[in-house]
Amino acid sequence: MDFLIREMTKEDIPRVGEILYEGFSAVATEYGYTSNINSAEEGRRLAWALFHHGPSERLVAEAENRVIGSTCLNLRGDFAGLGPTVVDPHSKNKTIGRELIRAVLEKAEPSRGSRTIVEAFNPAIFSLCYFTLKYIPVTDLLDLYLYGEGQQALKSSNSVSQITTKDIDDVYTYDCPRSKLDRRPDLKFYVNWGKVLVYHDQSQIRGFLACLPGPRWVQLGPLVAEGEEEAECLFQHALTLFKNRKFRSRVMARDYTFVKALKGFGFRIYCINMLLVRGSWRPSQYIEAFGIFPEAV
Ligand SMILES: CC(C)(COP(=O)(O)OP(=O)(O)OC[C@H]1O[C@@H](n2cnc3c(N)ncnc32)[C@H](O)[C@@H]1OP(=O)(O)O)[C@@H](O)C(=O)NCCC(=O)NCCS
User: Fold this and answer.
1) What integer is the mean pLDDT of 47-56?
2) Counted domains in the chain
C-alpha cells in the first residue's frame, strides 16, 4: 500500500481523533474490553491535547490525501515515551504502524532510549514492538480504576501539600535521579491543569504524585515515592481532594503491598499492561505510578 509519512498539523486533529476512537475501540472490542476512548468527540479531544500539550514529535501516515494513522514521541531527557500509535482499522496489517514508529524513532531516538506501554491483550502491538522494533518487556503494569465507592475512611495527610510553579525545580531534582527522566514540561502541565502533591519529611521531599482531572476520570500518576507509606499517603490525599470522582492509575504489579493498599481504597484492575523498553532504562527500586497523558499510552 502506498502511503507517506509527514508531520501532524492542526488540520489533522479531527481525523486523528476519529482514528484514535475507531482504532482503540476496535482492538478493545475484539478482546472483550471496554475502550478507554468511547466516542469520536473524546478521540478529537485527545488528538487536540496531543497536538497542543503533548509529545514534541507527532507524525501521521497519509494515503490518497486521507490520514490513516498517527504516532507520537515524547522526549524527556535521555529517554523518550512512545505512543499513542494508531492505524485506521481498515488499513491494519499493511506495515503503516511499523513505518510510523520507525520514522518517529529515527527522528528523535538515536541518541536515547524509549519506552512504551502496551496492553497485554493486544498481540499486534506487542509483536510489532517486540520482534520488529526490539523493545523488551521490563515490568508488568496494572491499569487500575476506582469508580467512587470505598473512599469513606480515607484521610488527608499533614505531610502532603500541593506545589505551585515555583516548586517545579525541587520536584524535578527529586524525580530525575529516580525516574531517570527529565519531566519538567510534564510537571508544568500538571501544575497548570491539575495538582502536583508532594510528601515532605521536614524540608525533604520523599515522594510526589501528579493528579490530572479529565472529563471522565482523574488520572493519578506519575508518582515516585521512597516507599509504600509515602505512596499510600499521596494516593489517599488525592482521593480526598477529588471526592466522588472516578480515578485511573497505572502501577507496577511487583509492588504488591502498595497495590493491595490501593485495592483496599476501592481500586480494581481494568487490564494488565507491559512496559516495553529500547535502551538502558529500567524501573528503579522506588514506588512508581505511570501517567497516561501526556506520557505514552
Ligand atoms: C497496533 C497498530 C498500531 C499496528 O499497526 P499496523 O499498521 O496494523 O501494524 P503493522 O502492519 O506495521 O504490523 C502489524 C503487526 O501486528 C502483528 N499482528 C497483527 N495481528 C496479530 C495477532 N492477532 N497476533 C499476533 N500478531 C499480530 C503482525 O504480525 C505485525 O507484527 P510483526 O511486525 O511482528 O510481523 C494497529 O493495529 C492499531 O492501530 N491498533 C489499535 C491501537 C493500538 O492498539 N495501539 C497500540 C498501543 S499505543
Assistant:
1) 89
2) 2
